[in-house]
Every structure is written in structure tokens, then in C-alpha cells.
Amino acid sequence: MALTNNLVNPLLTDKYQLTAAYAYWKNRMHEVPAVFELFFRKCPFGGEFAICAGLGEALEFINAFRFTPEHIGAVRAVLPPDCDPEFFDWLSTVDGSCLKIRAVREGSVVFPRVPLLQVEGPLAVCQLVETTLLNLINYPSLVATNAARFRFAAGPRKWLIEFGLRRAQGPDGAVSASRYSYLGGFDSTSNVLASHLFGIPCSGTHPHAFVASFSGLGELFTDSLVALNGQYYDFVPRVLENLKGMKQLFDISSTNEGELAAFIAYAQAFPHGFLALVDTYDTLGSGVPNFLAVALALASLGYSPVGVRLDSGDLAKLSRIVRSMFCKVGERFGRDFGKLPIVASNEIDEKVLYELNRQGHSIDSFGIGTRLVTCWEQPAFGAVYKLVEIRGSPRFKMSEERGKATLPGKKYPHRLLDRNGHPLMDVLTNEVHPLELYRRENSEWHMMAGGPLRCRDPFDATKRFSVEVASSVPLLEYVWDGDFCPDARHPDVMIRSYVREQLAIFGEEHLRPLNPTPYPVTVLDSYYHSLQWLWQQQLPPREIQ
Amino acid sequence: MALTNNLVNPLLTDKYQLTAAYAYWKNRMHEVPAVFELFFRKCPFGGEFAICAGLGEALEFINAFRFTPEHIGAVRAVLPPDCDPEFFDWLSTVDGSCLKIRAVREGSVVFPRVPLLQVEGPLAVCQLVETTLLNLINYPSLVATNAARFRFAAGPRKWLIEFGLRRAQGPDGAVSASRYSYLGGFDSTSNVLASHLFGIPCSGTHPHAFVASFSGLGELFTDSLVALNGQYYDFVPRVLENLKGMKQLFDISSTNEGELAAFIAYAQAFPHGFLALVDTYDTLGSGVPNFLAVALALASLGYSPVGVRLDSGDLAKLSRIVRSMFCKVGERFGRDFGKLPIVASNEIDEKVLYELNRQGHSIDSFGIGTRLVTCWEQPAFGAVYKLVEIRGSPRFKMSEERGKATLPGKKYPHRLLDRNGHPLMDVLTNEVHPLELYRRENSEWHMMAGGPLRCRDPFDATKRFSVEVASSVPLLEYVWDGDFCPDARHPDVMIRSYVREQLAIFGEEHLRPLNPTPYPVTVLDSYYHSLQWLWQQQLPPREIQ
User: Fold this and answer.
1) Is the CB of B266 inside 8 Å of chain A's CB atoms?
2) Are residues A320 and A304 in the same domain?
3) Is there a single domain that holds both residue B314 and residue B460?
């Protein structure tokens, strides 16, 4: 693997990271050991879960992180001209080998306040990678989460195709959308580049323009088609014969001839892949009868037609009518057309999926673009990256808003499980092996089972928990230790099944769109008391006059 | 110039463009002359205007458009294995030299249904560039329009900084956001790479982590600072003396010492650029007094402190109080602090800008990230690319929804102006020199002035106009004729002023957020009649049984 995008380099950062690095350097603090954590405060889309994604690309960035002479020149250009030139000498020696990174596994189901990434290293270097890491994790996590929500809405058996390239926020927004929608539960993409780069199955039929480019049967290059048995057959006459049957069956006087020609040409090009877009002129009055005339001719030559795509109109109703037309024709002509796939597209989003389910439909596959890839309902994921420890002592930020306050200290998050392996809550502590969760035996630490565990909401003093834990799993693992850690990288297809498995475990209560149950994230009692003490020590009561 | 992003190549397309190209090729239609138009149907953000951007990058794509052997391999992989291998031979000869493109000027104020780009050339090649062109124009136009709206809300005198890198939809979303926000009216970006690539001014102070990384004055490397006159001075003692004054003046018992140390270190690093982020612990009780103590010390050494940034809380109220504190300190200590800039950030969007104006504030500059770059209010621009002509005869698509129907034929849009050069409406025709707008003299065509012009809404038969035109401007110009046309490319900074000039001409009625006046886009009477005829000819009345 390598970086996907040439724009990902040390200059893909905010200027204030460079000014901060310079000021650290100037104050001889640039190599002080520090810990930063990346986390988010609120689940996107009004939901109660998120999928963490983008870590693979983030590590590729760390691996490639160094300032070339061109980069140094660009940094000089944005800093004041009187900056000490020795800073740039130092900057040109910096790379990712001085960093250690722990992270949740790519594709993990994650919750607010739990660190997704923990970066340890020299203060200034940790600072210099902040913006790029956020950029590389925010959007992938957002779109993977969105895809998981769409998948939940569509149900497990529908084929979901990502279609968003043309409306995505830039080329990279598109390619990332394809990659992380697939991780989040989609089955394929229309994006050829993403398919090529990440091995995602690629789907597509033909555009409206293909249909509109034909005006009549005279534009067909040939009347014939090689049948599956290898023999040439007259194809167009068969189609026309079938069309007569369709007109009679459906009581239609005429269909659009250009459309019919387009379908014939497409079937001649892809006899094994005849999926027709049927809404260019009139779905029921022209598109579907034309499709069926061609499909019957294909079937008579031994091919299996694929199906139709609806791209406008009342999708639920149209799909039901189209299904009944398929059944009728199948019965009349002795073909197994009743289950031909119907693909639907046209501004489909989570709400539309639920609404189509409610109305009842016969759609087998959804092509989803704009609303998925731009994450229409909430186009940004709010992950932040905060200093939590410096020289081994905890740090935090209070801000004017409690919601923006950070939890001080390097944290060790665990996921607590019940006897069935079902997650109960995530708990944060600032000890590697908190005695509540570990016991020591023969100088080795063992995770403890059982026993009620006392923990609390970090901000709300009234919310206390006593949890019967069967087992617990540490959520962060080393993924980078000056270099890639073994097993830190998984193929996308494995991550995709990991996402699916976890979502199945968390289940409907946290995943549903309406009033989902919040999954608790708490702190161990011991950590709670230390952070209360720290906040109070650093912040005197505000004086009101 | 060259392509900004390595992901922009012929594979950045939908599979259905490749299947269509193959089916055209198979039917010997691939080189039939065709015309496609790119346009949008509805202005974004509930508004009545849009800015067209991204054309420069789109032309770079056309210029670089060719299928390398790697690309051909990827195309083979997504098409069925039984495709005719000669198709790939043809595909490897394809490039942009067979295309002609007319476009509106980059940065034009544009309206629904007006073609922004018109691509002429072999049918299959026009088809193959569709998705990439849409991707390269949709997001730039969206974010430039959003930036123009934010600028309109903030007023002409505020300094607007784009801050969105960390929350943007991918690296390219970020870099494009910086570039096209600048075009749309922003003044600078925090994005170092965008600044480097496009010459956009770069802004930034320091992050919260910089403040949080200090816990006390003992962490300062030096107490001194070289004054503007070149002499070393004790700096920290001056700051502490000033802080006493601040505490007395504002009746405060203590401020956060770590924050004070951070401000001192930052001022020592950037004595000319001391802009402090003051909300890490307590804006009024700690941040601002600490800032002022350092600012007074800097001023006493001959430097001009820059100002403060507020990133949380009640921005209008805080800015007014901070302004009064600046004035009070300025007066008391004989410094010109009353006009020190106050920068505000924190989820600012168009509505917040209007609301801050209503409340009354003392903010000089806004740092705007997430809501600008993700285009939160509407994260996609709906430009489409439709076949309008083939072998010289008009084509269209009807669809199940009237709004999705297209206007057939290659179009020649003109902007009609009144005597003051003020735009009255855009009008579409399918003639190069419609007699209503041109007269011929000595075998040359001259644009006509005066005379009432008859035009109509293309879809609503009741909407007819008689327009007193003083002059008219054709909106499309050749920008690519197998190669770049001369004068097709303008530097970003020129495009930026072009945007500003046009917005000034269009004025408040079309730009305001609430109930803006729609700008009319009509068709000439002659074109209206020909397209009614075409629609009726192609579409028999729907049969209802």
C-alpha cells in the first residue's frame, strides 16, 4: 500500500501548527514528550454509534511524513521572514519514526469521548501531524458510518451500489466515499478508479444519453446476434415480434423506437449483462415493454437478461407494477422473469429507504449517490485532536463550553462485555492496568472477569454505574511504533466483515434511526476523582461581579 | 498549471460510461458527432444564484485525458471478459484533442438551465469525460457559491479566513475548498498546501494545545526579548508588572499561569505576529488579561501586538466586552489598543453571521471552517451533463419528472442587459445568431441593441416576456479547441475580482438569503416553438386506462 493521494503531505496542514511548532522550538520544548488523543464528542446523524475509518491511510501519511526541500520552502513562505533559520534545519530532520501510535482497529464501532487514536512523541511533531490526521479520519469515519446506517435501513439482503462520484466533494471525496461506503456495508461502486485501487466490485449499466443517442432502428449496425450456442441469429426481428406481444399484453399503441434501438444495441454489446435504464421517456409505457421485448429475444438465444433500473418517479409503486409486468410476461412466454432484479436510484437516502419499506416495494438493489457520499444529513464528522499529557503530566482544555472540555491524561479505554460477549459500556481510565480490571500473577497482568465495577459519567456527578462485567477488551492497540506494527493493516474486505460482525453484536437498539439507545461511555471511579481534582486545581471558581 | 490531484485521470469515472462507450463502439456510433451540455436545475442553498467554478481544473483534465496501459488494464477488469479486444486498441488512441469545449468564464454568476459547459466531439469521447467533468465542477461551484453567500452575510469589510481543512471531505475537498472559497470572496486560508499551490494568503495563530502545553512560567526558556531597537530587554518581568495592573483594573484575583507562559513564549517567537487564542481556560477572567499583559510588554519594546481569537462562548457579547477591555487598557496605558483585531471562530455559518450582525458585535475577522467547506446547508451542487444533439439533430430526455426533462439542441445562451449594463435575464436559443439578437451587415454579424425581445419560460406556457434590451452578451466562449484556447485561463486572483464585480452588479435582490428574487432564464420565442414541437413529436400522450 502507499498513499492514495499526492495532496497528502506535510503541507496539508493548518498554518497554526507550523507557528506552534516554531514557538515550541524557540522555547526549546519541541522535543518534550507529549501525548495527543483523537476523539469525537457526538455521534453523527443524530445516531448513537459511529464507525472509525481512515486509519490505514493515516498511517501511510505518518510513514511518508517528511519535509522535502520544496515543503521547507513553502513553510518559510508562510512564516515571518525573521524566523530563526535553524528551525528549518530541524524541520528537515523530522519524520514519523519518533512517534508511537495506538489506535482502535480500523472499522471499529466507536462512541463519543473514547480515543480513536493516541499519538505519543515529541511535542512539536505530534502537533505537526494533527490537521492531516483529522482530515484523513473525519471523512472516512463519517461516510463509513453513513453507509452502515443506509445498510441498516435497506436490510441485509438488498444489493447497495455507491453512485456518488459526480456529486462528491472533489475527486478524493469521491474515491474515499467509494472505499469507506464499501467498508460500511455497501456491495459495490460505480467508481472505476476506486474499484481499481481497492478491489471493490464495480457496477454500472448505461446512461440516459445512451438511450437518447438513438432515434430509430435504422441506426443499428447489425440485425443479428450470436446466440449462446455460437450461431448467428436474426435478433432485431425477434425483438420486434416480441414487442408486438408486449403491446398486446399491456394494451400499448407504441413505444419509443430510439429507446428500443438503444436497448437492442446494448444487448448486442452485453448479451450477458443486459440491464436497461427504463425511464428516459416513459417507464411503463415505453421503457419496460421495450426492455421485455429485448429480454425475451435474448432469452430465446440462451442468454439471461439482467434487469432494469428506475431513476425517477414513484419508485415503490413503479417497482411493484414492473414486477407484475415481469411476472405476467414470464408466465405468458414461459420465461423465469418474475425475479429479474429491479435497481432503483434517484436521491435515495436513509429516510427514503425506510419510507419505501413502509410503502412496500419490489426493488432488489439501490444505487445511492449524493445523499450517501456527501453525508447530506450531516456533512462533517467532528473528531478533534487534543493534548492530554506532557512530560508525563495530564493536560486539558476547558473552553467556554462544557461540551468542548477535554478529559486530561493518557487514557486506556476498555470495552466491557457481558457473559454473551455483548458490549455493556466503554470505560476510560488513566492507568495501564487498573486494579478494577486486572490482577497481577507471577509478574504478569491478567484481565479480570466478574465483580461489579464502579464507574461514572465524567461530567454528570449524578450518573453512577455498578456493572457486572464478564470480560473486557482493551480498545487501543499499537499500530505504529516508529514503523508499522505487525498486523496493523487489514485488507478492506476483512475490515468490511469486521464492521458487519460488530454491528450485528451491538444490535438494533443502538443502530435504529429513531430514539436509539445511547451506549454508555464512562470513567472508572478512580479516574473520575483524579480528574475532578485536576479541573478544580487548574480552574478557580469564576468570579461574578 | 497542471492537474492538482493524481486521482484525476480517465478511471475517475462511472463504469456505465465505459459500458456505454463500448456499446457505441460496437454499434459503430462511437465517432458520431455529438454535443453534451453541463448545467444545473436549481440554485444551491435555497438561493437564486450560483458561481461557476472548477473550469480551469476541468480543462487540465481534458488536456491530460488519455488511457495509459495501466488504465486500459483497469477498464478491461471492469468490463466482461468477452468484450472485443479491438475496443481497447481504439480506447488507447483516445485523447482530448478531438473535443471542442465552450464554457462560461470561470467565476461567472450563473443560473439554472443555462449551459455552463458545452462539449462537442465524438459521441463516445464526450461520454467518457462526463463523470470527471461533473466531479470537477460540482464541488468547486458549490463552495464558491457558499463562500460568496458568507461574504455577502459578513459584509465587504470583514476579513474572512477559511479554516476547514480538518473537517473537509478528504484532502482534495480541503484543498479545493480553500481555492474556491478564495474565489468566492474569502481573504485567506489556514491551509498551507492550498496557499502554496494557488498563492492564497495564509492565516493562522496557535492551537489550544500550545496553551495547554505550558503549566507555568518556569517552563520559559528565556525571560528576555530583543526589542524592535535591537536591544535585549527583560520581558517576563514587564509582563508580570502589567498583569498586576490588569488584575487591578479588572478586579481579578488570578489568571492561569500556564496560559500566560504560553502567550509569552508565543510573543517571543512572533513579536510581530502576537495573536492569542484566549478561550482555553476562561476568556474574560484569564485569556484576555493575560493577552493584554503580554501585549503591553510587547508595545513597550516597540512591537504592535496583533489581537485575539475567540473560539467558544457568546461571540457577540464576548467581542463587545473584549473591545471595551481593549479600549480601557489602551486609555489607561496610553496605547492604541482600541482597534486591535478580534477574530472569532466556532461553527460559524451564514445564519450565525446574520445573527451576530443583528446582536451587534466587535468582531473584525471570522475564521470559518466546517459549515463553509462541507457546505453544510446543502452539501452537493446538482450539475448534470446531458446529450443535446447528435449528428446535428436535437436530443432530449423526458424522465418521469418534468424538472428532470432536458432542453433539446445545442444552445447559445445570451445575457440581456439594460442601458446601465444591469443584467435583465438570460435567454437560450438554438441558433448561433438569432435574428432577434443579431443583424448581418457586410457578411458580418453584429449584436443588436434595443427593440422589445419576445421570450418565454420553456416549461410554463403562461410565462411570456417582452424585454427592452439595450445590449446582450453571449455567455459561452470557446475554451478548448483540441487544445487550450488563448485567454481561456485566468489567474485565481483575477477570477476572484471578476466574481466580486459581477455580484456587485447583480445586487442584493438576487443575493439575499431570505426570499431572493429569481433571475429569469427564458428561451427565445422561436426556440420555444421548436422545442414544443419536438417534445410532442417524440412523446405521444400517455395512455391512462
Assistant:
1) yes
2) yes
3) no
User: What is the distance of C-alpha B90 from the center of its chain?
Assistant: 37
**pLDDT tens digits, B391-450:** 999 987 766 566 667 888 999 999 999 989 899 999 999 988 888 888 888 888 887 766
pTM of the model: 0.96
Of residues B151, B236, B138, the one with CA closest to residue B500: B151
Q: Which residue in A311, A40, A463, A164 sits closest to B13, CA to CA?
A: A164
User: Which residue of B8, B9, B14 is the best one to mutate when testing the A interface, meaning the one whose CB has the most A CBs within 10 A?
Assistant: B14
Q: Is B265 on the interface with A (CB under 8 A)?
A: yes
> Are residues A202 and B78, on separate chains, in Cβ contact within 8 Å?
yes
Q: Is the separation of the CB atoms in B262 and B239 below 8 Å?
A: no
The answer to whether the beta carbons of residues B281 and B256 sit under 8 Å apart is yes
CATH, residue A219: 3.20.20.70
- Domain identity same for A327 and A422: no
How do residues A351-362 score in pLDDT, each as one tens digit? Answer: 999 999 999 999
CB–CB of B15 and A204 under 8 A? yes
* A510: closest CA of chain B, how far (Å): 25
pLDDT at A406: 83
Q: Looking at the predicted structure, is the pLDDT value of residue A292 above 80? A: yes
Q: Using CB atoms within 10 A of its CB, is residue B471 exposed (0-12), middle (13-18) or buried (19+)?
A: middle
Whether A1 and A107 share a structural domain: yes
pLDDT for B449: 65
Given a contact cutoff of 8 angstroms between Cβ atoms, the answer to whether B164 and B373 are in contact is yes
Render pLDDT for B175-202 as a digit per residue (tens, 0 to 9).
999 999 999 999 999 999 999 999 999 9
One domain, residues A461 and A486:
no
Same-domain pairing of A337 and A427 = no
Domain that includes residue A358, residue range: 205-363
Are B270 and A80 a contacting pair at CB < 8 A? yes
Look at residues A25, A2, A48, A29 and name the one whose alpha carbon lies nearest to residue A515: A48
State pLDDT tens for residues A33-89: 999 999 999 999 999 999 999 999 999 999 999 999 999 999 999 999 999 999 999
Q: Does A396 touch chain B (CB under 8 A)?
A: yes
Residue B170 lies in a domain: no
Cα separation of A295 and A263, whole Å?
A: 9
Q: What interface predicted TM-score (ipTM) does this complex get?
A: 0.95
List the single residue in A23, A168, A400 with the smallest CB-CB distance to B265. A23
* Number of structural domains chain B divides into: 2
Task: Please check whether residues A460 and A537 belong to one and the same domain.
Answer: yes
Is A175 in Cβ contact with B12 (below 8 Å)?
yes
